[in-house]
Write a structure and sequence with these properties.
Elements (H helix, E strand, L loop, with lengths): L1 H38 L5 H22 L8 H24 L5 H8 L2 H12 L6 H17 L9 H28 L1 H26 L11 H28 L1 H7 L2 H14 L5 H19 L5
Helix pairs in contact: 1-9, 1-11, 2-8, 2-9, 3-7, 3-8, 4-7, 5-7, 5-10, 6-12, 7-8, 7-9, 9-10
């Protein structure tokens, strides 16, 4: 009976983790589309990055205080969340810079090499052992993503590719550091401090960047509609990463990272719904391949 209860609990935890990953993918899929609509109303990327960090820190801090939880964290985790914040800065900076040299679709696909980095680190740490079947599923999901995003190598540029991979490495470090902190302190506190550090770095960049001539000053939306989309980007960023790290504490960072390939598929869905884009037959095939590969990945027994 005890064994049956344990199996039922494990199955329940697995489905809860999958539920959180899907919810995270929905919110993170909404985020870039909301940002794109905010850009159309006069905002620029650095302003959106700063505002979404302020929204996230405020929302998470208020939530913790309403529940009577502490906001501070032990000193050893301060270093880890500071590292995660720096990694988030490199991830955002690399991604924003890469699209100046290569197509957005290629930059997006290269960004989603981060599950391979996370899986490799956790494999060598002995936390999650990957077999041949899991690696094949990951590669097929990655190829499906390339088809879904309509990647072309015509405008490939080594600088752009390097910057996109810096972005991927940045988010991989963020995932690894914040997952460890989430397991110890809870996902909300871990996300609060990671975002607090990232927000401080973004504000510093927004102040120093224009002074050095490296970037334009922050430009905010010109109307209420634009502010609405900026706030939507902030809320979706907050909830997307929060649910992702909750899922990662349940499923493990490797599995959560691989399943997060659903995020760009959700971005495509929101682009169709909100922006009016259409899918080609090849893109539809790619979406199908992503879903099929991730389902197969989830069904392959994992070796911890």
């Amino acid at each position: 009976m005890a064994q049956g209860d344990a199996s039922a609990h494990a199955a329940g935890s697995r489905f809860l983790g999958l539920f959180f990953i899907i919810v995270a993918a929905l919110f993170i899929g909404l985020m870039p589309n909301a940002a794109k609509l905010a850009y159309g109303e006069g905002a620029n990327p650095i302003a959106v990055l700063v505002i979404r960090a302020v929204v996230a820190v405020t929302g998470l801090a208020v939530f913790l205080r309403m529940r009577g939880n502490m906001l501070s964290i032990p000193r050893p985790f301060v270093r880890k969340t500071a590292l995660a914040g720096i990694a988030m800065l490199f991830s955002a900076g690399g991604g924003m810079s890469a699209v100046a040299y290569i197509d957005v679709s290629l930059a997006s696909v290269l960004f989603f090499t981060f599950p391979f980095f996370v899986a490799a680190v956790n494999h060598f740490r002995g936390l999650t052992r990957l077999g041949r079947a899991e690696v094949i599923c990951m590669i097929l999901a990655f190829l499906g993503l390339a088809l879904a995003l309509g990647v072309s190598l015509e405008n490939a540029n080594l600088t752009g590719i390097a910057l996109a991979l810096v972005s991927s490495l940045g988010i991989a470090v963020t995932v690894l550091a914040t997952t460890d902190t989430s397991i110890a302190l809870g996902a909300v506190r871990a996300n609060l401090h990671m975002t607090l550090w990232a927000g401080a770095y973004f504000i510093l960049l927004a102040v120093l960047g224009p002074l050095t001539g490296a970037m334009q000053p922050m430009r905010f939306p010109a109307n209420a509609v634009g502010w609405g989309w900026v706030l939507a980007a902030g809320v979706s960023f907050t909830l997307g990463y929060l649910f992702f790290f909750i899922a990662a504490t349940i499923l493990g960072a490797t599995k959560a990272s691989v399943l997060s390939i659903l995020e760009p598929i959700m971005m495509i869905a929101f682009a169709v719904i909100l922006v009016g884009e259409t899918l080609s037959p090849l893109q539809a095939l790619g979406v199908t391949l992503v879903f099929g590969s991730l389902i197969a990945f989830d069904l392959v027994p994992k070796r911890a």
